[in-house]
Amino acid sequence: MNILCLGGAGKICREAINDLLAFSNVSKVTIADIDAASAEEVAVWLHDSRIDVRRLDIQDREETVQLMQGYDLVMDGLTISMNDRSTACMAEAGVNGINLNGCSTEWEYDQLFKDRGRLFVPGMGMTPGVTNLMARYATDRLDRVDTIRISHGAFRPVAFSPSIAETTRLEYDPDLPTRLVFEDGQFIQVPPFARPLEIELPEPFGTHTQYIIPHAETLTLPKSLEGKGLRLLEVRGTWPPENMELIRVLHDWGFLRNDRVRVQNRDIGILDAIAAYLLQSPEGRQTKLYGYALHVEVTGEKDGREMTRVLTHTHPPSDGTVPDWEGLRAYTRNVGIPMSIGAQMIAKGQVKGSGVLAPELAFDPESVFHELAGRQIMIQEHLTPRA
Prior knowledge:
Blueprint: E1 2-6, H1 13-23, E2 28-33, H2 36-46, E3 51-55, H3 61-68, E4 73-76, H4 83-93, E5 96-99, H5 110-115, E6 119-121, H6 130-140, E7 144-155, H7 162-171, E8 180-183, E9 186-189, E10 197-201, E11 206-212, H8 217-224, E12 232-238, H9 241-252, E13 260-263, E14 266-269, H10 270-280, H11 282-285, E15 291-302, E16 305-314, H12 329-347, E17 355-356, H13 359-362, H14 365-373, E18 378-385
Parallel strand pairs: 1-2, 1-4, 2-3, 4-5, 5-6, 6-17, 7-12
Antiparallel strand pairs: 7-15, 8-9, 8-12, 10-11, 11-12, 13-14, 15-16, 16-18
Helix pairs in contact: 1-12, 3-4, 6-14, 7-10
């Protein structure tokens, strides 16, 4: 099994590669990145003879397609803004693929993947990804589903990498058309900071006010669960409190519009300037608490009784007491490992079908939960009858 990893020099994607090397019989993993020097540093860090490095510019479609054709599967860790190009190349190359975000134009290539007899799973990280499977697990155990509320806390710096900085600004873009909720059979667009709700996350993360965010679960789960009677689906998220305070101020003062301003005879986007500062400053690249916390609440009916099923997730602390989970790695491992697990399941033929498949249709939730547990990432369920 040979795997090509796009954006493999990134902090999240290198964790997916590290997991592949530890838990699969992969023959070769190629780190393909436009930053060849950083890719070489990652190869040294991984210290495995199965690793090689290839400088690749995803904008060069011909070179990218040709390279992909030599691999069994492509793991895509590129930013959201590049996922349309990378997915198009995978479809053209006729290769199986998986990515982290699931928020680009992946679904436009469904027929092309089917024509090639290949499959592509978009959005197989923590959220989207594991949250899709948590929701599927709960709904499979209900006769009727009323509401699904997906929430997460991503405790990481606001801009430890360009892709994370991009995700942060996109999710609270005031004009974003994909910030949606599913309600009474319709998708409803909502503004930033809509529908605040207090969510209690597992310790040590605590309770936080969370707001609607634009995630792929909102678009895929209503279709995947068609016939279950779903009335409401909301996806919320939060970052560390200081990050949320910053984003709120940027929103209220209009910085998120990224208006052009003139500085020393140059026109620049004001948010571009702020993002550049955050990427280079300790305030943008550090936070007090690191890690990830998921909370999925599903209400419905089972055998004539109203039920609420709540699934949460925990992992080792980031304080250095558990090897390989210290600091930022408590966040990046949570995001990168699910993509590796998904890639391994595809490569082993454990995913049936072709085309573009949402995570909740591609993977068996319990199988993924079992694999996560083997990496110290635990899923818990809490079941409560409703009065």
